[in-house]
Give the backbone structure.
Amino acid sequence: MRILIIEDDAEAGAAMVRGLGEAGHETVHAADGALGLEAALKGGFDVLVVDRMMPNMDGLAAVETLRREGDQTPVLFLSALGEIDDRVTGLKAGGDDYLVKPYAFAELIARVEALSRRRETGAVATTLRVGELEMDLIGRGVRRDGKPIDLQPREFQLLEFMMRHAGQSVTRTMLLEKVWNYHFDPQTNVIDVHVSRLRAKLDKGFNRPMLTTVRGAGYRLDG
């Protein structure tokens, strides 16, 4: 599981990175609300752990912005404010759970893992977003920064897989099995050709490439 921790207290943030890492999870730490929002908007996280009171942008504002952008990644708020009204405010802002400080770390891990399970068994998402890239899974449309991108069916499948694994290196074997349904290497350049076409369409008119080649590993889509 990939978890974004938005926490301005360096000691608390380091403790969560260490503890969640020991529990087998990958973590990214953002030191304030603005940096956390920037990271979260790039996508690729299973759960967000968000401190409520932070400089630059507090946790409530960051999560409210995420929800307005259509991001439904589960959020666990952390706060020293533990009154009922405080919890209600956090949930109304878009939080899915609320844990009052100080807390037992075992409970933090249990709540994070429960949010991840809830997401897996919940409603199926109809839209994927990675940074400025948006995919409509029902209408089969793709836009980058609002600009429509016309894709062939196989290019659409390829991009969908890459978006579901945003920020990760995707190997040729993974693409052959999941996109082409090949369980053997056909010894052709079919992947290179499709990736090249997809990259050209995604980046046309933009200065920053989103789909890059990872030498010796495969490909990666970044927001």
Remarks:
- The chain is about 40% helix and 20% strand.
